[in-house]
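Team,

Forwarding the record for the chain on the shared tracking sheet. I've put the sequence and predicted structure together so nobody has to dig through attachments.
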Amino acid sequence: MTKVLYFAAEYPRATDTFIQREIAAVRAAGLDVESSAIRRPGDEHMVGEEQRTERERTKYLLPPSVGRLVRAHARLLARSPRRYFSSLALALDTKRAGLRGGLYQGFYFAEAGLLADRLQAEGFDHLHSHLADVSTSVAMLSASLADVPFSFTLHGPGVFFDANVWRLDAKIDRASFVSCISWFARSQAQLLSTADAGDKLHIIHCGVDPSRYADRSLEAPAVSTSAADDAEFRLAFVARLDHVKGVGELLEAIAALAEDMPGLRLDLAGDGPARDGYEKLASRLGIAERVTFHGYINQTGVAELLATADAYVLPSYAEGVPVGLMEAQASGLPVIATQVGGVSELVIDDETGFVCRPGDRTQLAERIAQLASDPALRQRMGAAGRARVVADFDSASEGRRLAALFNAAGRTATFGARPALAEPPSALS
């Protein structure tokens, strides 16, 4: 049985449910999977029993004792001086510019020694990192020190803005494979790597479990909401409360529609340092009574929130493929999202929802009003969206695709850009 160590900078946070689902799916595919992270997340991220359980089973590198750190590096040096100094040279070659960059790389190398020592001591066959910045910098050095293959999941879009800073070219070159969450992410990886690296760039979606979500599209169509109709129409938003998510524009669109749509309501699930500013903006716009700020909620809470919504909206300026959109479509909801990153790989305009121009507040408001006034359209889009998620964004299926790559031991070039779906373990026994 292939033994895989999953690694992240901080895990599990409230926003890391997609990693938890992926780990569970890979385990269900027959692999032995454990988790590790640099830092232990605080209690503010423990929004449910799932997070608390996962935190207890995860091992953390920080804070290490001096003795533990010295012993780990001493063992690695004694086992293979050549590999140790080669890894040190790799650290120097891939550090960020400046004195501060060198200092941080020193920390990463120290942490990599702790992780590499565990990889060797516990006999892991493969190391996999989520997010391509800090955690994959440490993972790349750990894999070199331990002589263990590594891979990473490439999300974007933020890391693409600092691709040279985080040396994505080196990480792609040294990885046994890269799990790209979308064709968009894969295209950026191809731009940043050598021409022959394409064989190791595979598309594995961050999926959801459709069975967790009640299918709203199966319900009888509701009545319309228009200027002459004060029936409640609820919009849901599940994401980090941040400028990049277009929260300000969403609130302004709600305000623009308020007079003609007295029943319009917005549920915001998520948190962040900008929350206080958005609460004040809602008050200034005169829509505070229409907007509910729920903060972080767990997977069960998200499913319950979506079960009460009529539509989902995410007017981001930059995205990979948002898991929140998958959860909404799995719930049979029509969605409104912006034409950024890999969104259009999930949301098909005028079929599973609407894809809007980013930053176009007028179009956003028009699409909200259109969905509110057409229950049959909402039902048709919701059904098509759920079918889309079931077909291509099911976490169990994506876990089997990823497990096949872990089992391939470096021979992933035969899988193609989108690995074929392997039979589940029960079908193979």
